[in-house]
Amino acid sequence: MHKPSEPRSARPLRLLPPAAAALAALLAAGCSLIPAYERPAAPVAAAWPDAVRTAASATGGTQPDESASADRTPAVERNWQDFFPDERLRRLVDIALQNNRDLRGAVLNIEQARAQFQIQRANLFPTVNAAVSGTRAPSVVDGRIRNSFSAGLAVSAWEIDFFGRIASLKEQALAQFLATEEARKSVQISLVAAVANNWLALLADEELLDISRRTVETRDESIKLAKLRLDNGVSSELDYRQAESLAESARATLAQQQRQRAQDENALVLLLGQPLPEDVRGSLQGNRLADAQPLPDLPPGLPSDLLRNRPDIRQAEQTLIGANANIGSARANFFPRISLTAQAGRASGELSGLFNSNGAWGFTLAPQLLLPIFDAGRNRAGLASAQVGRDIAVAQYEKSIQSAFREVSDALAGRATLDEQLRAYQAQAEAESVRFRLSDLRYRNGIASYLDLLDAQRSLFTVQQLVVQSRLAQIQNQVQLYKVLGGGWTEPAEESEAQTRVSAAPAP
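RE: above sequence
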């Protein structure tokens, strides 16, 4: 019985050998030898340490009042413009974001990584060049010198990525690009916090200078009183010399604080990338840290939130993803590498023949397959190196999580205890102030010795400084908590979409 004939298009599929069919499918779809990526488990507890949550109650202090502020926006969702209420500070942060050289370098690193990614992506496609050549050589037939010219398009050694070697390198370059973007966010977060901390330090310096100046004036008055009493025979020279010593000690402290004030301003100028604006500098005069507007309270969330809120952790994860992709490239080196060289154009024995009917069209195709047989263990060592690199990246990723957990825990511990510390110092300062007034009154009336007055002066001066330093530590701890929770950077939606599209964009 005669079998019906098959359509022409169906016959080649039936006659195609299985190996050739597999090769055709591989050529169409390609393959990847990159190991399946699995995010390592976070090596930290699921909740913040109990000591952080119970520190305030154990010391008799007070935790931030949850009802005092209805806004419980997480730090990562709160723009720095909303977190810092001081208009002068917001202006300085804006200046720093425009001029800081570290941030500028981080942005340039992104552009460099983007270019490297585009280079690796372009290797997936053939490079077409215009090729013109000419030769002059003796003919093997008659020995006469003959010319040969050709012009056309050429593809040189284009590697067909059967086993995903180039694709793996492209994925590694993409991960590096995304890691540099996260690094830029980390730099911005650190910059915002550094500007805020230096500004607060300047306010504290101004308050400390004011305390020192008033103390110097008070001790100069004590010198005059001691001198008067000495001249009238009421007290000994010992009291006078002690008053002199105490006054000079206050002047030494004043000079030290003036130096610290200048150094803090220099540090702020470096962060800004330009001199401190004159109007901002002038507004510091007479300002006290105690008058600074309070910063909003921040909910700490859960430790697991850090994985998506901290750019440095996301940077470490992108580095891990890139190291994982390198394993795929190292594995592909064990398989054949197929490259293709092709040229199409016109050829002629005369240069003018390339542009008239004397020339002839030609096409050459030269595929090449290289199969590694002996390489003295190079490929095996390359794979081992890539695997160790991945393990190193895992360790660095886990360490970044642990460091973030420690930083947040420290900031929360500070929030739970610094309020009580400041309250205690303020109460002590009030007590020392009363003690100084009573000691001064008793000394002027000859009831108490000058040593009692000197001790009261020293204690009051010391605790007044401690109040300012404790208040500075408390406010800077709030800035630190904002920083370590991932605040200071909010990713625009359009930027996130751009990153998503970058790997799917056509090659340039």
